[in-house]
Amino acid sequence: MGKTFNPKITAFLCKWCSYTGADLAGTSRLQYPTAIIPIKVMCSSRVDPVFLIRAFLKGADGVLIGGCHPGDCHYESGNYHTRRRFAILQSIFDSLNLEKDRLRLSWISASEGPKFARVCNEFTDKIQKMGPNPTRKNMFI
Amino acid sequence: MSTDSKSGGRIPIENGIEQTLRKVLKESLKSDLIDALLLPVKVPSGDSYAWILMQDPALVEEEASPMAAVMPVQGAKALKSLTRKGNGSLRVAAMMRPCEVRGTIELSKLNQINLDNVTLISYDCPGALPLSDMSDAPQDTEEAFMGLLSERNFESTAVKPVCQFCTEFSMGAADVHIGMADPDTSQLLLISGSEKGTAFLSATGLKVDEEPSAWEKQTDSIQKKRIQQMDKAFQTIQPMVEGFDNLADTFSNCIGCHNCQSACPICYCRQCYSDSKESSLESAYYLDKAEKRGGISLPHDRLMFHVGRLSHMSLSCVSCGQCTDACPVSIPVAKVFSYVAAQTQQAFEYKAGKTAGEAIPLKEYKEDELKKIHEMTKSAESQESPHE
Amino acid sequence: MSKMLTTDHGADKSVVDLLRFLLDTEKVSGVLTLRKTNTSGSLDYGLLTRSQELDRAVPLMPVMPANAAQSLSLITPTQKPIAVVVKPCELRGFVERIKREQGSLDNVLTLSPTCGGVIPLDTYIKKSKDNLTKDYYKQVKAGEIPESIRPTCKACEYFVPMTADITVSVVGEQNLDSKCRFILNSDKAVSMTEGFGSVENGDLDAKILDDHLKKREKEKKALFESIKFKQDGLDGMIDVFGKCIGCHGCSRVCPICYCLLCDFESRNFDQNVSLFEKELEQKGALRLPPDTLFFHLGRMSHMSFSCVGCGQCTDVCPADIPVASVFKKIGENTAALFDYVPGKDVNEDIPVLVFKEEEFKELGE
Fold this sequence. Notes:
Distance between the termini of chain A: 22 Å
Mean pLDDT of chain A: 96
Largest sheet of chain A: 4 strands, parallel
Number of domains of chain C: 2
Number of strands of chain C: 9
Helix content of chain C: 25-40%
Oligomer: heterotrimer
Structural class of chain C: alpha/beta
Strand content of chain A: 15-25%
Largest sheet of chain C: 8 strands, mixed
Order of helices and strands of chain A: EHEHEHEH
CATH topology of chain A: Rossmann fold
CATH architecture of the largest domain in chain C: 3-Layer(aba) Sandwich
Order of helices and strands of chain C: EHEEHEHEHHHEEHEHHHHEHHH
Distance between the termini of chain C: 50 Å
Structural class of chain A: alpha/beta
CATH class of the largest domain in chain C: Alpha Beta
CATH architecture of chain A: 3-Layer(aba) Sandwich
Radius of gyration of chain C: 22 Å
Largest interface: B-C, 71 and 75 residues
Low-confidence stretches of chain A: none
Shape of chain C: globular
Number of helices of chain C: 14
CATH class of chain A: Alpha Beta
Strand order of the largest sheet of chain A: 2-1-3-4
Low-confidence stretches of chain C: none
């Protein structure tokens, strides 16, 4: 069709760290791609792997979870659980030969506005190279 | 069949029935009457079909199998998933078997489907082949079904058992019906069943001015044979279900998976009572019960599940046979349900899904109905000591 | 060295005798065992309280009408002692359920055979049962893998029960028709069987089981090879699961999927027509009912690490999808992340409930 590819990246961001980090990136006037569609969650562990699967199957080109650094969780251990679930999901994607690189987990604290912008830029670049998620076009999903 | 005068139109069959049909459907999509079509499409592995809602005319022409050999998912369920939460602006035409149309009508009465923007297309159905045939030998199964259609064979014994004695194989509440039983095999007969249907047909550029009397005669004669088949079948089913021991024996292989219920178009509950907390009791209860009887069977209440389901949905059973297709232990569920449903529906002179207007029998009552029950209560009362 | 009890009867009869002994001596109030419910060989699990009810019991019948873990959840916790005869994967399934607060092993005496595998339901119902079991036992006695069993059974490495109080030696037992060896793995087993027969030191034959394990491992490799997904994973997924009819029978018969209302049948993922319309606009075509792959991938993410590979899901699939083979493979990989073996230890938490600070450092950046 000759259309340029505008990736869409669903980002589940923890309210206390990563979302605040995104805010900081904004107030600091740091550029990050419009591909990122942030969804605020109370804790990264609120993100059932099923949310990621859903975003992936509904055509998100990339899915990002942003949480507090290990040890810094507002609820003490939420992000450790997130990490285990992410490992499970990655393993499933790996076993099924699905593109696990479309999933990303990042620890971004409230003060890391520049890191948030960097992660978003990097991830968007990577997804740009990967091309559109094949789930976008598949009618049998 | 019904005595209303119907009108239809014809188009010549070119490159087979399905291809001709695809062309008609494609035309409807090009008109400004229909936004999307809901049609079966063969899955990539080639051994089943999926319901696909499509907007692309090329897809209709290349991929759709409007008359699928098997019925993996009852069409009513597909439509339900689309309009369960209400109606949008999307105008959809769906091509279904008559039993799927009936299932759809029942679900619309149960507020699970909104038909405002839906045009239903059905066809004289020779019956669906068992789902397992398609898994085992996809190509043979497809060819076999196409054979039935092109030969206008409505007496095949290869189709699902309940299909062999289905008397509602022809036009029901659909807006458009394709007269596959019509004696003229060189043309496709399309009949309008409603204003929506007439609009649909005229949108495809078809002249609808013919009274399809030859088709009516033909469907009448097929129906007579099917009624005979039904009588015969019911005679064999009766001993399978009458009396507790026979009923228990018929369901003796049941493993309690409830596939029959989840494949059923009528059972729309997200959580069946029998899968709910309410249906199981404290753990100690089971051993207590076992001690009273010497033993109990687990998983619990397997027979009650079937009888309970009959009590909940048999009035709306459309005898589509999905339950049998889904049963992993080959219980003839559909035969039993069909047999019982015929009787429960008869009690209210109701035919599930036949007409759109009627409410389901449990939604209303008449004061002077069900005389038999009235008599039963009367005779029970007369045996009691008089009041006062 | 474990304690061992040997009888002079065939295995099936010996197990029934033991159950009868337990009931008659009132050491237990009830027993859970497979039994025939009619002359044509239909099977169910009977929770039996009178010893004469045991006449139709076939505790070792190599068929699994339902994974008994589900029924065990129904009848436990129990104040009164019961004895249950279940297959190793049923026991493992129950252990996984207990970790999810779906039952208890308190007051339960567990008997489990070294398992030769189970015959698929469809085969059992349709074929001549006598020939089936005759051929089955011929191969089991020889320590071979029976041809007729479920694909996931052939590939099962955990045919020796992990947590049973009493192990019934079946695999590789040449004299299965004339004698039976019970291995008593717990003090409970020793005290409960006291008076049933003489106890000596003894154990399962490690060499025979080891040889058998090698055969199973070979089968497992072959099974996993056979379900290799194509290079493009999505197409591979659709190739396998594309014909799913969405009945969710696989989750209902799964011993791990204990939710009364599955997430994927709840309202959680319902869509308004407007959302379908938007998707349709983007894709040109979409499947109804939606979420075919979503269900299977979601289920994998929720339960795969606890999958015991019992194969019940494949048996009930009306679309003949090899659900169990796929889930077994996925499950092995997800469980391996945590060195977890589902059903091995009732005191071990399921991986998603716990964590270690020092793990998966490579994840997240």
